[in-house]
Amino acid sequence: MADLLDNLKQLVELDRSFGIEFQGKPAPGQLPPLPSQRPAASDQRPAASSQRPTASDQRPATSGQPSAVPALSGLASADLDAIAVSIAQCRACGLCQQRTKTVPGEGSPTPELVFVGEGPGADEDASGRPFVGAAGQLLDKMIGAMGMKREDVFICNVVKCRPPGNRTPEPDEMAACLPFLEAQLTTLKPKVICLLGATPLKALLGLTGITRLHGQRKEWRGVPVIPSFHPAYLLRNAEAKKPAWEDLKVVLGVLGREPPKR
Fold first, then answer.
1. Is 5 left (phi over 0), alpha (psi -120 to 50) or beta?
2. Going by CATH, does the domain composed of 75-254 fall within 3.40.50.670?
3. Helix (H, G, I), strand (E, B), or coil: what is residue 200?
4. Contacts 24+ apart (CB under 8 A), 80-88
5. 171-188 and 198-205 are packed helices; what angle lies between their axes, rounded to 10 degrees?
6. Beta-carbon count within 10 A of 104 CB
7. Banded pLDDT at 7 (limits 50, 70, 90)
8. Contact 213, 201 (CB under 8 A)
């Protein structure tokens, strides 16, 4: 028996000298793989793509159709610049397709008073600034009549892109922009909000009837809100300027101020 074991040992060592490894007997029902069936080292690694992703591949695909609003989580506590960046990236409604520039708003970062209008016009779309056309010039005079300057307040709109032909924004367009407006107001923490026209009245408070509700004190999340007429409406209807001034005096009253003596 010892001689048999010695002979087997010699045969194994001889095989090894030729590069042949001795393999034990497979378990019943199992066969060792043939050389052609043994997985190569490269087969054991996950297949790699033949092309590395380019920068464009790593960005979300875009199409001609509006996409979702950029992530708004935490936006309510963000600063105004972060909100403006999110507005510039937004493609949540069809208004994005024809815009030249987004118009987030401008003014004091710590205002007592915020004016909210309807949406940008042609001049605002070109400049990226709110209320810079004829209606904006009238608004500047209204602010001055209150004893304040444009840089003392914050001015923005419900929608941040120009509706074609300066038409009234559609409900879905207002709904798409409303999170931005709410985030701005939450960040600004004004003492009073003045809504200029029927569109912000509907968007922010869900109310209709600006001719009936102007000058009446409302609230948005605990902040006093005074609806009034849009300056563009005042340019077309001079008789509404006097009641609009009365509305602004209500705003001053909420702020604890008196109208400047003329």
1. alpha
2. no
3. helix
4. 80/104, 80/105, 80/109, 80/184, 80/187, 80/188, 83/180, 83/183, 83/184, 83/187, 86/180, 87/160, 87/180
5. 80
6. 22
7. very low
8. yes
Count Cβ atoms below 10 Å from residue 137 Cβ, excluding itself.
13
Q: Judging by beta carbons within 10 Å of its beta carbon (0-12, 13-18, 19+), is residue 166 exposed, middle or buried?
A: middle
Q: 47: exposed, middle or buried (C-beta count within 10 Å: 0-12, 13-18, 19+)?
A: exposed
Gap between the Cα atoms of 13 and 20, Å rounded: 9
Contacts 24+ apart (CB under 8 A), 32-39: none
Residue 158: count of CB within 10 angstroms of its CB: 24
The residues pairing with 223 across neighbouring beta strands, listed in sequence order, are 220
Tokens, residue 235 = 């340019």
Q: Is 252 helix (H, G, I), strand (E, B) or coil?
A: helix
Please report the pLDDT score of residue 80 as a whole number: 94
Interhelix angle for 241-255 vs 134-145, to 10°?
A: 50
pLDDT of residue 261: 87
Cα–Cα distance, 194 to 224 (Å, whole number): 9
Closest CA to 157 of 134, 136, 126, 187: 136
Spatial CA neighbour of 194 closest among 142, 149, 242, 233: 142
Beta strand pairing call for 113-117 and 192-196: parallel
H helices of the chain, in order, are: 2-17, 55-58, 80-89, 122-127, 134-145, 171-188, 198-205, 210-213, 231-236, 241-255
11 token code pair = 């045969």
Q: What is the pLDDT of residues 59-97, one digit of tens each?
A: 333 334 444 445 444 454 469 999 999 999 999 999 999
